[in-house]
Structures are given as structure tokens and as C-alpha cells.
Design goal:
Layout: E1 8-14, E2 17-22, E3 30-35, H1 36-42, E4 49-52, E5 58-65, E6 69-76, E7 82-89, H2 94-99, E8 107-110, E9 116-119, E10 129-136, E11 139-147, E12 165-167, H3 176-180, E13 183-191, E14 197-205, E15 226-230, H4 244-252, E16 256-260, H5 280-296, E17 305-310, H6 314-324, E18 331-335, H7 341-345, H8 357-360, H9 367-376, E19 390-396, H10 405-420, E20 430-435, H11 446-459, H12 464-467, H13 470-484, H14 489-515, H15 522-527, H16 538-585
Parallel strand pairs: 15-16, 15-17, 17-18, 18-19, 19-20
Antiparallel strand pairs: 1-2, 2-3, 3-4, 5-6, 6-7, 7-8, 9-10, 10-11, 11-12, 13-14, 14-16
């Protein structure tokens, strides 16, 4: 045995060395290596040398190795999460790379803030270029190829640009409306019950809170519908990559998208441990604080807020409903939900019960863990004290991660509770969708998401033209045409050309925005309920008055010339009339 199973995450081999990425000194991982002969001779007691130390503000999330380079995909723990790609030169051997302890000779490529990074299929060890893709909630996926032989030192690291990347596009099914509109994506902070600051990523159209105005009266800003996502387990981050459905469909209709980065996720280096096992109730408190924050700051109202969570992300949503009912949000979307935690963790025959004890606890052998899980268990804490919001529950019978009986039992018990309270099923529906097949991720597909959007449109009473996501249907038709070959090569070239033009227009528009001296802060306008209208400065008023005076002077001179013209004309007519009379008298 070369490495202990307890700490190693990635194990690679390069030339005559084993390279190990381990978390033995911290969750951010470090890179160590050893020679083959030492590893085979001494095994676990072999001495390992350090290539990259464990850093407090940078975490290693993935890696790729080539003949001449080791590529590390890293995440910086800034206020706005940022990914970067670090390339370590191994052409002169790994020992030469260790000498550069300050890592000033590494090639570092910085991605835009709050972008999601996905490594590509880099199967050829001889290649000198790295393939990967990245996207944000409001920018489509860009498939990129980066030549890691380019020297980009860390102090001169650049944002992704055409000068360093070759962007290869496949057949696109998006319209300019999905790509050209200017969206705001930024971070804010909510304060949890214990005073911890919880980051929230907020995405919206730039003019989402600007209402139409008349010439006589400016209308005040009003809260808009909001979809808030949460996960908060296993050190994972909520899915913040580009999705035509549901993200863009919601943003088009001036929804606000919020991603609650509660403790238990992977937003910061210590964030997973802060919401794991005995700290799991803090995840619920953080989510409640995020929902209250969105309402208090005027983004939305409880009736217009929709909470969405999948798998373990359903735990904070369902636990929040048991405490606060429909006072936090009006609709809940639970996909493949983990709702009966106690019975699941007490059954060791289930696939993930033993493996997930580090996350949830061991209720079989620990009475303390059993009592703790019971305190926030969504199924065990269904009560009659609160009124539950509208709920859509989706599960699959062949789900191997979360058994379907979690959702079915929860829906049955909740339906009984709603019967006691005589809840109107049309006003606050409880929908249970059960699929025969599809597995754990079946309900993330396009058709299933569209069904949820249709229910949401009816619950929020959106305008009629917004209820049917026809643009999503058109996108699916275009995608099918590309798959079956109905789109020929000429059409592909035209598509590429159009996309290049749209890309250049978007870059020009962004550059124009950067040069603007005044850019309205729509979030501040919304928070203070200040109507958006133009307030001229004293210099602008004076300039306008001078311009009016100048125009008035030109008008007076023009009127004087007109009067002189008519006076001369009248005098000339009178002279001609007197001459004609004199001639007739003779």
C-alpha cells in the first residue's frame, strides 16, 4: 500500500515519481511526491517531499497531468469565489519545479469571478494544450483550449481573453436574447442566528427593479418573484452554471435568482466542517437567515419566493418549513429529496448510509447523534402549528442514492396534516411526481423542469404569454435538428458567423459601460424605494438655460427678418397699386 486511504484525494504518476494530492494538513489540500523505489520499498512509511503546500486562501479542486506539465484547478477563497488554472512546468523534472518555492514561474490563468469551471477530456499525455469549459449563470458555456506553454506568471495573471484562449464553439441553440442582455451578478451577506456572515449570490436583469414611468409621475419600485437555491452538504456548491432552463427563463421575466451559500457547502475552505455532523442545524439557520434577508432588502415577498433544493439540499428547506411554515416562502421545489434522515441512517443495508455517517452522524451507535438528527429531521418534525406552502416533490423509483420512499412517506404524512387544517389544494397544492426510471438526476432534465415552471407560472399568476416556455421548446427543436443532421455545414458556418458578431457586439457594449462615468446602482434604488429618474446637476441646468437663451436669440433674429420681409413686401405692393391707379386716371 502506497498511500493511506484516509487522506489522499488524487494519486498520479509522472516519470519515476508518484504525485499525491492529500488533505492531511487541511481541507485545501497540498501536493507531495516520492520516488517509485521509495514508495515500493517503504510503502506507507515512505518519505514524501512537498511540491505545493496547503494554503489558507486557495483550495485544489482537481488536476490533470501531462508529460511536461502538472495542471491544478484551484479555487480562491475571496468574497467573490474565483477559479484559476495553475500550470507547473515538469519538463526539467519534478525536482526542478520544487526549487521554485514561491511559485513565481508557474503559469496561472484567472477565470471571471463566480464562474463554474469544468475540466475537459485531456486524455493525451503528449498534448501541450489544456481543454476546459466555464460558464456563469448569465453567460453560456465557453469551451476553451489553453496552451500551458505560454508564460503567465501569477503576478501578471490575466482574465480569460481571446489572446490567451482559443474558444471552439459547437452548434448553438441560444438566441441573442439569452446572451446579449446585460445582467447583474454580485454577492451580498446575510447574518445568521449566531452572527456568522452567510454569502448570497444574486443574479437579475439590470433593469429588473425599474418600473415604467410616465411624464408626470414616477412609479415606486416593487418586489419581484425570486427563486432561491440551496444545498449545504458534502462541501458542494449549488449549481451556478449556465442553464437555459430554468435560469434564463426566470431572468427574462425579471425574476431574481439567489444562491444561498450556507455552511456545509464548499464556498470557503472551512465551510464544509462548519455545517457537518453536529453543526448541521446551523445549515437550517443559515438558510432561514438568507430567506429573511431577501425579503427585508426588498428583493421579494414571501408569497413570491420559491425555494429549490435537490437531494440533501431539500433538508434545510423542509426543516425551515417545519419551523416557519409559509412565512418564509410560498413555494418549495424538492427534487429527489432526502427527507427521512433518521430511518435512512439507521438502516445500514442502504447504499450510502454507512458512507455518510461523517456528514450526518451515527444514530445507531450514538444516542447523542440520534437526538440531534431528530431535532431537524424533516419527516419526524411535521407538525400542526404551521401552515405549509405549496410543495412540488419529485422522485424516481430506481433512485439508488435516496430511496423513493423518503418522498412518498413525506408526502403522505404532509397530506394528512393538511387535511386536518382544511387547506385548499388549489391555493396551496401538494404535488408528488414519481418516475418509473431515470435515477437520481432524472428531474433535472428539460421537460421535467418545464413542468415545474408551468406550475410556478400559475401559482404566481404570471401574464399569459409567460406561462408557456415556448423559447425552451424552440431550443429543444433546434437541438434535435442538429443531432439528426438536419443542419448542414453551411448552416453551421452561418451560425458561427452570427455568434462571432454577437460576441463582438457584447464586448463593445461592455467596453462602453466601463467608460461610463455614471452607472445607476439599481440595487440601491430598489432598497431605498427611490424611483429611477434623471436629476440634473447645477452645471447641466446652467448649460440647458444658456442653450435655451441661445435658441431664443436665434428665434428673435429670425422673427425680425420675417417682419422686415413682410414690411418690404407690403411697401412694394402699395407702390405698385398707386402706380396702377395713376395710369388708369390718365
Amino acid at each position: 500500500e502506497i498511500a493511506s486511504k484516509k487522506h489522499w484525494t488524487f494519486l498520479e504518476h509522472h516519470d519515476d515519481c508518484f504525485i499525491l494530492i492529500t488533505n492531511d494538513q487541511g481541507t485545501n489540500h497540498r501536493v507531495i511526491y516520492t520516488r517509485d523505489e521509495f514508495a515500493f520499498k517503504f510503502g506507507l512509511s515512505a518519505q514524501w517531499k512537498e511540491l505545493i503546500p496547503c494554503r489558507k486562501d486557495i483550495a485544489i479542486t482537481d488536476n490533470d497531468i501531462f508529460n511536461d506539465a502538472l495542471v491544478l484547478f484551484e479555487q480562491k477563497d475571496d468574497f467573490e469565489r474565483q477559479y484559476q488554472v495553475r500550470t507547473i512546468d515538469l519538463s526539467k523534472g519534478i525536482d526542478a519545479a520544487v526549487i521554485d518555492g514561491a511559485r513565481v514561474n508557474d503559469s496561472v490563468l484567472h477565470l471571471p469571478p463566480m464562474a463554474m469551471l469544468n475540466p475537459g477530456l485531456n486524455r493525451n499525455m503528449d498534448q501541450d494544450a489544456l481543454s476546459f469549459s466555464y460558464s456563469t449563470v448569465c453567460n453560456p458555456v465557453k469551451e476553451c483550449t489553453f496552451n500551458f506553454r505560454n508564460q503567465l506568471p501569477e503576478e501578471k495573471g490575466k482574465m480569460v481573453s481571446p489572446s490567451t484562449l482559443f474558444q471552439s464553439r459547437q452548434h448553438e441553440t441560444l438566441s441573442p436574447h439569452d446572451y446579449m442582455w446585460n445582467y447583474n451578478i454580485y454577492r451580498d451577506l446575510a447574518i445568521s442566528a449566531d452572527g456568522t456572515q452567510i454569502p448570497i449570490t444574486i443574479v437579475q436583469m439590470r433593469d429588473a427593479f425599474v418600473e415604467e414611468m410616465t411624464d408626470f409621475e414616477a412609479l415606486s419600485n416593487t418586489p419581484k418573484p425570486c427563486m432561491i437555491y440551496v444545498y449545504g452538504s458534502y462541501g458542494e456548491i449549488p449549481p451556478m452554471h449556465f442553464q437555459l432552463s430554468p435560469y434564463m427563463w426566470l431572468l427574462r421575466r425579471k425574476f431574481t435568482l439567489a444562491f444561498a451559500h450556507v455552511r456545509g457547502g464548499g464556498e470557503f475552505s472551512n465551510w464544509a466542517d462548519a455545517g457537518r455532523h453536529k453543526n448541521k442545524p446551523k445549515t437550517v439557520e443559515d438558510f432561514i437567515a438568507c430567506c429573511e434577508f431577501m425579503v427585508e432588502r426588498g428583493y421579494t415577498t414571501p408569497d413570491q419566493m420559491i425555494a429549490s433544493g435537490a437531494s440533501a439540499g431539500a433538508v434545510p428547506i423542509a426543516a425551515a418549513m417545519n419551523r416557519r411554515g409559509d412565512s418564509l416562502f410560498g413555494t418549495a421545489l424538492l427534487k429527489s429529496p432526502f427527507l427521512d434522515i433518521t430511518n435512512t441512517m439507521c438502516d445500514p443495508s442502504l447504499p450510502l448510509s454507512l458512507a455518510e455517517r461523517a456528514e450526518w452522524g451515527d444514530p445507531i451507535n450514538s444516542a447523542e447523534d440520534f437526538k440531534l438528527i431528530q431535532s431537524y429531521d424533516p419527516y419526524a418534525n411535521i407538525n400542526d402549528r404551521v401552515t405549509y406552502p405549496s410543495i412540488i416533490i419529485s422522485t424516481s423509483l430506481d433512485d439508488e442514492r435516496v430511496p423513493a420512499w423518503n418522498a412518498i412517506k413525506y408526502a403522505a404524512k404532509l397530506r394528512k396534516q393538511r387535511t386536518k387544517q382544511d387547506i385548499d389544494p388549489s391555493a396551496k397544492p401538494l404535488l408528488l411526481r414519481v418516475g418509473n426510471s431515470g435515477g437520481h438526476g432524472f428531474w433535472h432534465q428539460l421537460l421535467q423542469v418545464n413542468e415545474e415552471l408551468s406550475v410556478i407560472a400559475n401559482q404566481l399568476d404570471l401574464p399569459h404569454h409567460s406561462r408557456l416556455p415556448l423559447d425552451l421548446d424552440n431550443a429543444r427543436v433546434s437541438e434535435n435538428q442538429a443531432v439528426v443532421g438536419l443542419v448542414d455545414e453551411d448552416d453551421q458556418k452561418k451560425t458561427y458567423l452570427k455568434w462571432e458578431n454577437w460576441e463582438q457586439e457584447r464586448l463593445d457594449y461592455q467596453a462602453k459601460l466601463q467608460k461610463m462615468e455614471f452607472e445607476p446602482n439599481y440595487r440601491q434604488l430598489k432598497a431605498t424605494k427611490t424611483p429611477y429618474f434623471w436629476i440634473p446637476t447645477d452645471e447641466e441646468v446652467e448649460e440647458k438655460v444658456n442653450a435655451n437663451m441661445s435658441n431664443q436669440g436665434r428665434n428673435d433674429r429670425f422673427k425680425q427678418k420675417v417682419d422686415e420681409f413682410y414690411a418690404d413686401k407690403k411697401e412694394h405692393d402699395n407702390a405698385r397699386k398707386s402706380d396702377s391707379q395713376r395710369d388708369s386716371g390718365i
